[in-house]
């Protein structure tokens, strides 16, 4: 794991190169204040202060140089990343103002997933000095959380199976004095029958399990919050098997679990006055003679019967049992993260998680936090008339919507069947993957919706 702490330090007047944040709208004003020599360099380089542009401005001595950085009107988390990715080792400070959330992108430029590289390229260490010492620890923890999600999602399924997921959760629980438990075998089949059914085709070493972590003092002054993550460590599609192209990225189908675990760690690190209940149903949706079948009828933890219309709609099955367990404790709110539907990606693309919520206040708080932290979400409707698409002729509900329409909505409506109406609940259908690299955001696993959820919890309970 990248050590981010030395990369963001208090400004104590130490030597540092100056970074001039320049906005396109204020470019002429900024240019007018520069020395004639600098203006000539700017003109020759055609630097205009557009976001992502970057220019070295030499001083009178070899080590006396500064840099101009094109940024957006409101300094966002990724505005300094293009410059940070190109700057040599050294210390830097903004010419005016504070880095704020832009420090996050600065830190994440230094993260690489190089676990499987024999000779990884060294990363220049660029330190940002900040006049906001009170925000350093929080920003470092958030960078660690994003890096945790990326590393977990990027790890191949052979090394990130249900047992590996449980071991990592147990390690984090131990670091924070949280109670930890794993339900598997006969106890899983009895208590979480849909988790057991989805994962039963996997080998014994990759057997399904329900991972739980409980942290906090309890009591009325520590409201209970439940965080749930879909932990499908590899998804073949089951007997409704995916084509090879559709299977290629399915190591990332535990991205919801990665988000949930990273968010839980943020809650514990910040010592929020809450009682935290983390639940991760961890399975591999494999193919064998014992695999659950299209047309099978499963009985959920709640007793509701579910007809299997598609074995590739397995994520909602395991989440349903985890949601039912969380509801039993009557939490103040439930958040779940899942790489649940391709339909959400068709609707919103790879960078915009779909938000579903049964509570307008919770949805509004999440959207407000998302805007403030520049980690966007888009609310989608829990359009109840579409429950008809999940109708079964032989069971209480079908796990796959008929007709092929509104796939993200029907998936969320399926989950809603297992959540009490009086418990605020939000479901984030996230991609957990970045298909193309950007500065500070390499191609691969990505935390999408994590920062927004954390900002919401921090505002509500911090």
Automatic annotation (TrEMBL):
Protein keywords: Aminopeptidase, Hydrolase, Manganese, Protease
Gene3D superfamilies listed in its UniProt record: Leucine Aminopeptidase, subunit E, domain 1, Zn peptidases
GO biological process, one term: proteolysis
Pfam families in alphabetical order: Peptidase_M17, Peptidase_M17_N_1
GO MF terms held by the record: manganese ion binding; metalloaminopeptidase activity
InterPro entries: Leucine_aapep/pepB (IPR011356), Macro_dom-like (IPR043472), Peptidase_M17_C (IPR000819), Peptidase_M17_N_1 (IPR048816)
Annotated Gene Ontology cellular component terms: cytoplasm
PANTHER family: LEUCINE AMINOPEPTIDASE-RELATED, PEPTIDASE B
Family: Belongs to the peptidase M17 family.
Name this protein carries in UniProt: Aminopeptidase
């Amino acid at each position: 794991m990248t050590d981010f702490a030395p990369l963001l330090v208090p400004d104590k007047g130490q030597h540092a190169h100056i970074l001039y944040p320049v906005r396109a709208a204020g470019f002429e004003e900024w240019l007018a204040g520069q020395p004639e020599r600098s203006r000539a360099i700017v003109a020759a380089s055609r630097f205009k202060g557009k976001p992502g542009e970057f220019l070295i401005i030499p001083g009178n001595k070899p080590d006396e140089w500064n840099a101009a950085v094109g940024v957006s009107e409101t300094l966002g988390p990724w505005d300094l990343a293009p410059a940070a990715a190109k700057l040599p080792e050294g210390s830097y400070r903004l010419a005016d103002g504070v880095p704020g959330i832009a420090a996050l992108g600065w830190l994440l430029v230094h993260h690489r997933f190089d676990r499987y590289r024999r000779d990884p390229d060294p990363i220049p260490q660029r330190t940002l000095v900040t006049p906001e010492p009170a925000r350093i620890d929080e920003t470092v923890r958030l960078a660690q959380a994003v890096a945790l999600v990326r590393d977990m999602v990027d790890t191949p399924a052979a090394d990130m199976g249900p047992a590996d997921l449980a071991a990592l959760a147990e390690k984090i629980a131990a670091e924070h004095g949280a109670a930890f438990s794993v339900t598997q075998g006969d106890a899983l089949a009895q208590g979480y029958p849909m988790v057991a059914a989805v994962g039963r085709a996997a080998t014994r070493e990759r057997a399904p399990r329900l991972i739980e972590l409980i942290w906090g003092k309890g009591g009325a002054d520590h409201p209970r919050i439940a965080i749930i993550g879909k932990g499908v460590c590899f998804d073949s599609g089951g007997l409704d098997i995916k084509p090879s192209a559709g299977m290629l990225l399915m190591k990332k189908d535990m991205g919801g679990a990665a988000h949930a675990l990273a968010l839980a760690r943020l809650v514990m690190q910040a010592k929020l006055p809450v009682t935290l209940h983390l639940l991760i149903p961890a399975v591999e949706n494999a193919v064998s003679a014992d695999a659950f079948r299209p047309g099978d009828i499963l009985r959920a933890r709640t007793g509701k019967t579910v007809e299997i219309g598609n074995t590739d709609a397995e994520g909602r099955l395991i989440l349903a049992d985890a949601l039912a367990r969380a509801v039993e404790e009557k939490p103040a709110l439930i958040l779940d993260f899942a790489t649940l539907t391709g339909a959400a990606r068709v609707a919103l693309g790879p960078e915009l998680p779909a938000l579903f919520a049964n509570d307008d206040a919770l949805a509004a708080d999440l959207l407000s936090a998302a805007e403030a932290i520049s980690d966007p979400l888009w609310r989608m409707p829990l359009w109840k008339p579409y429950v008809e698409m999940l109708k079964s002729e032989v069971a209480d509900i079908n796990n796959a919507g008929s007709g092929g329409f509104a796939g993200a909505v029907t998936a969320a409506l399926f989950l809603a069947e297992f959540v009490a109406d009086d418990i605020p609940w939000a479901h984030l259908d996230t991609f957990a993957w970045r298909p193309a690299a950007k500065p500070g955001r390499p191609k691969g696993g990505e935390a999408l919706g994590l920062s927004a959820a954390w900002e919401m919890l921090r505002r509500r309970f911090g």
